[in-house]
Amino acid sequence: MQNQYAWHTLSLTVAVFMASASATGQSGKTAPTTLVDVLCFKGQNYGLTTQTDIYVAVPYTSLQFSEFDNQYAAQYQVNVTVRDTVGRKVFDTSATRSIIETSYNVTLGSTGKADNVVFRTSLQPGFYRREVHVKDKFSNREFSSTDSLTVADFSIRPSISSIMYVSQVEQRGDRYSITPYIGSTIWNSDLTLFAFFEIYLDKQDDTVAFSWSIKTSDEQSVSSGMGEPIPVRSQSFQTFLPLIKVDKVLPGTYTLKIVMHDVVNNVVDSSIQLASQSRPYIVPRTFAGSVLSDLNKAIKHLAYVAEQREIDYINSSTNQADMQQRFEEFWKRHDPSPTTVRNEAFEEYYTRIETANKRFTSYTEGWLTDMGMVYIIFGEPRNIDRYTGQTGTTVAVRWTYSNGATYLFDDSTGFGDFRLRVPLPMSIKYRFK
What is the mean pLDDT of residues 60-83? Predict the structure, then answer.
């Protein structure tokens, strides 16, 4: 694999779920307002300084878009500062970014899109602190991210550069165009990932191979693999490894480790580790993960969206894995945008379940009450009218919706047990609009 990678043609995209429900009112996942990756590679003067690339991704859901001439525009300023151990600035730069989109749904984060920018500098090996500050021009909201930064010394050979997560590799003649995945948080478990890196050897003609593993903090492996032997004809070489998808792994911080091995007579000697490099592999606790943490309860919650035969089919599974697969297949059928990273119907429905439990829990869980049921199926009413009795306590509540539909709840017991005066037909179900 002697091909060189087309750094100047890198297409920077990020395939992640973004922004919290509190920020957008839509997404069921919580993500940082900015994503930052710092990657170190051998500098041109080999050892005296290290090429340091700082990638910043700003999710669309962190920005305010304004409509203009049937398009949607956003603008923000990003400042990147690197300080040494005594606080002196060794790198300080900024950029103003403008975004134009034609789809309103894309600006809301339906495709998980972000705007991305990379800053490149040369730093001496050592320890630093990097600061990233983003200001949205339209809303004046500001976001900051600060973290330590270790710049490696690649004059020590053999060695491996920083590992870049890559979501797509496209061959173009004798070169490759790669799509970096910014950050160590793997929001989408269905995403195909590659590990891209450079290797630096102390001799030109050699054959090496690379193994990789993703492990827990106590060194338990959750996924691993071994690449094919690679003949190397130069002291500096670029390559990548496909990473096997890590399915059904618990939320937490794992470590991806890549090890360079010697190859003798075309046989990989895994006992010899010439060099190694690692980076975090973080599986977040997502909204979907919270729902699936109690799958049996999540299936019970389907009462207002699924037919009984569909619930029976899911419950007839012979094991937990099959049950979860059937559950996920049900929601795929109800996904209003199957080509995007989000399932808005799933997110809205279980957000309503959560809200109903917070608002209406009394003698039973909120989602099981009549008010909870109406709220989950139809959402927030436009108007709420309350009627009080002689004692001043509320005895009836009427909900009115934008389509003119009304639902009247009576508290016949006096203990806040509001029941629908006219029960809903069983055929009425939640539908995403």
Answer: 94
Question: Do the first three CATH levels of 32-153 and 157-284 match, i.e. the same topology?
Answer: yes
Domain residue spans of the chain: 32-153, 157-284, 287-420
- Identify the CA nearest to 260 among candidates 198, 215, 214: 198
Place of tokens 């002196």: 88
Indicate the range of 104-108, 220-224, 406-410 predicted with least confidence.
Answer: 104-108
Q: Is the pLDDT of residue 178 over 60?
A: yes
Q: Are 418 and 397 in contact (CB under 8 A)?
A: yes
Per-residue pLDDT reduced to its tens digit, 344-359: 899 899 999 999 999 9
Euclidean distance between CA atoms 362 and 364, whole angstroms: 5
Q: Is 306 in a helix, a strand, or coil?
A: coil
Task: Give the right CATH number for 157-284 from 3.40.605.10, 2.60.40.10, 3.40.50.620, 3.20.20.70.
Answer: 2.60.40.10
| C-alpha span between 240 and 243 (Å, rounded) | 9
Q: What is the CATH number of domain 32-153?
A: 2.60.40.10
- Cα 261 to the center of its chain, rounded Å: 32
pLDDT at 50: 94
Nearest to 62 by CA among 92, 82, 36, 91: 36
pLDDT at 162 > cutoff 50: yes
- Residue 59 sits at φ, ψ, to 5 deg, of -60, 145
pTM above 0.70, yes or no: no
Contact by Cβ (8 Å): 64, 85: no
| CA-based nearest residue to 188, from 13, 16, 328 | 16
| C-alpha separations of 269 from 200, 216, 266, 336, 347 in Å | 19, 25, 9, 51, 48
CA 136/CA 405 separation, integer angstroms = 40
pLDDT the model gives residue 248 = 66
pLDDT at 422 over 50: yes
Residue 28: φ, ψ to 5°: -95, 10
36: closest CA among 20, 49, 22, 52? 52
Structure confidence by residue, pLDDT tens digits, 299-339? 999 999 999 999 999 999 999 889 999 999 999 999 988 87
Pairwise CA distance, residues 169 & 180, whole Å: 9
